[in-house]
Write a structure and sequence with these properties.
Layout: H1 30-42, H2 47-56, H3 67-71, H4 75-81, H5 90-108, H6 113-133, H7 146-155
Helix pairs in contact: 1-2, 5-6, 5-7
InterPro entries: Ribosomal_uS15 (IPR000589), Ribosomal_uS15_arc_euk (IPR023029), Ribosomal_uS15_N (IPR012606), uS15_NS1_RNA-bd_sf (IPR009068)
Domain Small ribosomal subunit protein uS15 N-terminal: 1-59
Subunit structure: Part of the 30S ribosomal subunit.
Amino acid sequence: MARMHTRRRGSSGSDKPATDENPEWSDVDAEDIESRVVELAEQGHDPSIIGLKLRDEGVKGVPVPDVKLATGKKLTEILEEHDAAAEYPEDLRNLMAQAVRLRDHMEENGQDYQNKRALQNTESKIRRLANYYRGDEIDEEFTYTYERAAELLDDE
């Protein structure tokens, strides 16, 4: 994967195993998985953390290696069905949190040009991602502002 704001090439990530069926050792009922997903979401966990918990802790002691193979639905689809989905997608929310932290840092450290550049790059990524999600996952009128991001993070 190429990096967005550097000249370096990115390191390659690991690929998931190429399989289209759930392993026989993970025979958890789809309804149990869905109820556990909703339970973890209500505890305030993000989708990526829910997936890790299902992989590591499992449901009733049995690990769930892949929610989509086990239930036929993506984790975020399950959350949407049960009205437990977050207002903004997790990647966008994480970028906004990073931008808020950087902006707060810049207010105290105005001469930190390295982090000033990091803030510019992060806000650029937010705008690109907002364009990708606009109309589908987020409101058509959404525009990123520091105030909106800070308000969103205060609500959580």
